[in-house]
């Protein structure tokens, strides 16, 4: 959703193509839900009373998924469980949230952790955008069982469901710094290329 001077000018054609009639509502809800998730994760951080190691990051990840799922339900859409994690699916597009840094960093610095689960990798390989035709193609004689498995769609998510990535940076003290959403392709070196991306505004935090 393009933003000029902090004011929304409506959902983009890309958002409408992904979310249909819910494009505007989804674009407006994502920043609000991330802010709500931060407020609750920050409260958990303070309650823990830990300085160097805190539950903020773990709590934030779970709360963001929970609040995005709430948005899907509010819109009359579905929430799907993949290996114990709930994903909001709106108009056959699953929202995949990912905090790629705990400090402000450019989106092109985002990288999937080396210890990322096979489930995460498979979500990107099977449900994310595919690379341009002819790029990084692997010959049939080089395709391993592991490689094939990473490209097998999750039936519980919906074989035709595509990912919309919601990448953001945040920390316990300063909250959400920046939010981007779009189509992210996972590269072999765990970095991302973006066939399309937009920056969303950051919503104010309302402490409960």
C-alpha end-to-end distance: 28 Å
Q: State mean pLDDT (0 to 100 scale).
A: 87
From N to C, what is the helix and strand string?
EEHHHEEEHHEEE
Percentage beta strand = 25-35%
Describe the structure.
This protein is of the alpha+beta class and 208 residues long. A hairpin with a 2-residue loop joins β3 (78-82) and β4. α1 crosses α2 and α2 (23-48) runs antiparallel to α3. 33% of the residues lie in helices and 26% in strands. The chain has helices at residues 13-19, 23-48, 56-74, 118-127, 145-150, and strands at 3-4, 7-8, 78-82, 85-90, 93-101, 162-171, 175-186, 192-200. The protein is built from 5 helices and 8 strands, in the order ββαααβββααβββ. The strands form 2 sheets. Strands 3-4-5-6-7-8 form a 6-stranded mixed sheet. Strands 1-2 form a two-stranded antiparallel ribbon. The relative contact order is 0.19. The model is unreliable at 1-7 and 133-142 (pLDDT under 50).
């Amino acid at each position: 959703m393009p933003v000029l001077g902090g004011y929304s000018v409506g959902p983009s054609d890309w958002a409408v193509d992904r979310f249909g009639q819910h494009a505007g509502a989804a674009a407006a809800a994502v920043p609000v839900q991330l802010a709500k998730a931060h407020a609750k994760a920050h409260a958990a951080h303070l309650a823990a009373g830990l300085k160097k190691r805190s539950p903020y990051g773990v709590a934030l990840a779970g709360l963001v998924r929970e609040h995005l799922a709430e948005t899907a339900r509010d819109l009359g859409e579905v929430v799907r469980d993949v290996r114990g994690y709930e994903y909001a699916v709106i108009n056959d597009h699953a929202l995949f949230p990912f905090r790629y840094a705990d400090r402000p960093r450019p989106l092109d610095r985002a990288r999937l952790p080396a210890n990322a689960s096979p489930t995460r990798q498979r979500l990107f390989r099977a449900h994310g955008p595919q690379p341009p035709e002819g790029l990084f193609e692997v010959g049939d004689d080089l395709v391993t069982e592991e490689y094939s498995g990473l490209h097998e769609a999750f039936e519980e998510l919906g074989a035709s469901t595509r990912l919309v990535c919601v990448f953001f940076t945040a920390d316990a003290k300063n909250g959400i710094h920046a939010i981007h959403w779009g189509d992210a392709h996972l590269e072999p070196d765990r970095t991302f290329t973006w066939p399309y991306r937009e920056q969303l505004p950051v919503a104010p935090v309302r402490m409960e």
